[in-house]
Design brief:
Elements: E1 7-11, H1 15-29, E2 45-50, H2 52-60, E3 69-73, H3 88-96, E4 101-114, E5 118-123, E6 126-131, E7 137-143, E8 146-153, E9 155-159, H4 167-170, E10 183-188, E11 203-205, E12 211-215, E13 223-227, E14 230-233, E15 237-253, H5 259-267
Parallel strand pairs: 1-2, 2-3
Antiparallel strand pairs: 4-5, 4-15, 6-9, 6-13, 7-8, 7-12, 9-10, 10-11, 12-15, 13-14
């Protein structure tokens, strides 16, 4: 007997998202999919119902699973969710018939080193280092073990190509085509005066070069990390090492991803 395919439906608690999640369950139930009431780590597909924030949280809260994922947009921007609620009937048919592709997207990896421990964290878009309570922080940036600059300001963003259009873009960073395996280092509101000098632009770095960010000693207990917009605190951070990870997420798509079309639709 053929095993039923299992689909996790992950949604936020917004009324519209709840309504669309229910509509999705009813559409999938017709085709006899198994729709667990709690998250199944062995499912065949994850569907996120919500906006970009919900999509990113669905990955983070489930440890960036290898299960393919697609999003239905009930939010505002909707950069990651490919589908609209109106696409649900067509999606179910296309998925059943195998008319889709799966694209692997590497994650950003960061080793956060404290005086006593190393924490390894991941992000799809970006990881930002900031001062506690939005205070000015001084951060030394090393590229391939060479000191490049000291950024004094609100902090630094390290972003992936997919994340280049998120916080990085808002901070004045460049858009980077997703197929380019690079990382981008962007200062957040840097101070530039006779006392403080750093590059006013972002720096795009190939993946084989190490990026290390070191807070000045008096700030090691005042560093706040933002992982895809979610704040996480670590004690006595001495430095952070950034790289593109071998760990990937698998994004399911019904069509060919047209980056420039998405950029124009979402931002212009």
């Amino acid at each position: 007997m053929k095993k039923k395919k299992t689909i996790n439906i992950i949604h936020n608690l917004n009324n519209y998202s709840l309504e669309i999640a229910q509509e999705l369950k009813e559409a999938l139930a017709v085709y006899d999919f198994h729709l667990p009431s709690v998250y199944d780590p062995h499912a065949d597909l994850n569907i996120s119902v919500g906006g970009d924030g919900s999509f990113l949280r669905s990955l983070r809260y489930n440890q960036f699973p290898e299960i393919p994922i697609i999003g239905i947009n009930t939010g505002n921007l909707g950069f990651y969710p490919e589908l609209s609620p109106a696409d649900i009937p067509n999606f179910t048919k296309e998925y059943i018939n195998g008319h889709y592709t799966i694209n692997q997207i590497p994650l950003l990896q960061c080793e956060i080193c404290s005086e006593n421990k190393i924490h390894t964290v991941y992000a799809l878009n970006d990881i930002a280092l900031k001062g506690d309570q939005t205070k000015t922080i001084h951060l030394d940036v090393f590229i391939d073990y060479n000191h490049l600059e000291t950024v004094s300001g609100d902090g630094i963003i390290v972003s992936t190509p997919m994340g280049s259009s998120a916080y990085n873009y808002s901070a004045g960073g460049s858009l980077v085509y997703p197929s380019l395996n690079t990382l981008q280092v962007t200062p957040i509101a840097p101070l530039n005066s006779n006392a403080y000098r750093c590059l006013s632009s972002s720096v795009i770095v190939p993946p084989e070069l190490h990026i290390v960010i070191v807070p000045e000693y008096k700030y090691i207990e005042k560093v706040v990390f933002s992982l895809d917009g979610e704040q996480v605190n670590f004690d006595k951070v001495t430095h952070a090492n950034f790289s593109l990870s071998d760990k990937c997420i698998n994004m399911l798509s019904l069509g060919t991803f047209n980056y420039w079309k998405v950029i124009k639709e979402k931002f212009l």
